[in-house]
Specification:
two-stranded antiparallel ribbon; 7 helices; 48% helix; alpha+beta; globular; 2 domains; 8 strands
Length: 233
């Protein structure tokens, strides 16, 4: 069993009214900003729909060993610390700017790799994204479509492909994935899928650039013809 150095962050919310009710709306709202939440909304047609609001660290694998503390991979803590220091985060909207502040500490600890592998496998199984067609889906399902359906990528804009590439690159650079590859079939298979999907996306982007370069000379020639006509007149 190996040990992996990780960030242990302990935090405490301090409210200006000195009242800390762990069941209060404002207290729970802060945790929703960090960890995200799913909301059930019943509409006029009496159907109930689920809407997921993403948390600040939801793109990251993490371990919660207890209340008001979290373990994160090295070099991934900046989003959380930015929220603590600057109160910047999705769904964060307190009427009073200084309604609360946060005390926190960051320490380095050793975590058993088996515990981290278990965390990564849950992360892989539960990671949701907004797919290219605008629907919420598992990242693993999106990767399968990219790999197995040749025409799937051709439907979408370069911006969508670039955004997904950034997301995949961020995942593969996470310290826990780097150090646990080869220690779990699920983790290794997931990283292999990401690399194959990245190859497909990059090939699709290069194909789009090649198409643009073919059409560009025609546009340039047309512009030259127009310019020549103006000069002659």
């Amino acid at each position: 069993m190996d040990k992996i150095i990780s960030n242990y962050i302990k935090y405490k919310f301090i409210f200006n009214n000195n009242k800390i009710n762990h069941n209060s709306y404002n207290y729970q709202k802060l945790f929703r900003v960090i960890y995200g939440y799913t909301q059930n909304i019943t509409k006029k047609d009496k159907k109930t729909y689920k809407y997921h609001r993403q948390g600040i660290i939801e793109d990251l694998p993490f371990i919660r060993p207890g209340r008001n503390c979290i373990i994160l991979p090295l070099n991934t803590e900046h989003k959380l610390i930015n929220f603590f220091d600057n109160k910047i985060g999705a769904a964060h909207n307190f009427k009073e700017k200084d309604y609360y502040f946060v005390k926190y500490t960051i320490d380095k600890i050793e975590v058993n790799d088996l515990e981290i592998i278990n965390c990564l496998e849950k992360y892989i199984n539960n990671y949701n994204i907004i797919s290219f067609d605008g629907k919420q889906d598992k990242l693993a399902n999106e990767l399968n479509k990219i790999i197995n359906e040749p025409e799937y990528l051709n439907k979408f804009k370069k911006k969508n492909k670039d955004n997904l590439l950034d997301k995949l690159n961020n995942i593969t650079s996470i310290d826990w994935f780097v150090k646990c590859k080869g220690k779990s079939d699920i983790v290794s298979g997931f990283l292999d899928k990401i690399n194959l999907a990245k190859e497909k996306i990059n090939a699709s982007l290069k194909s789009g650039l090649a198409t643009d370069s073919i059409t560009q000379p025609k546009q340039t020639q047309q512009e030259n013809n127009k310019l020549q006509e103006k000069q002659e007149n």
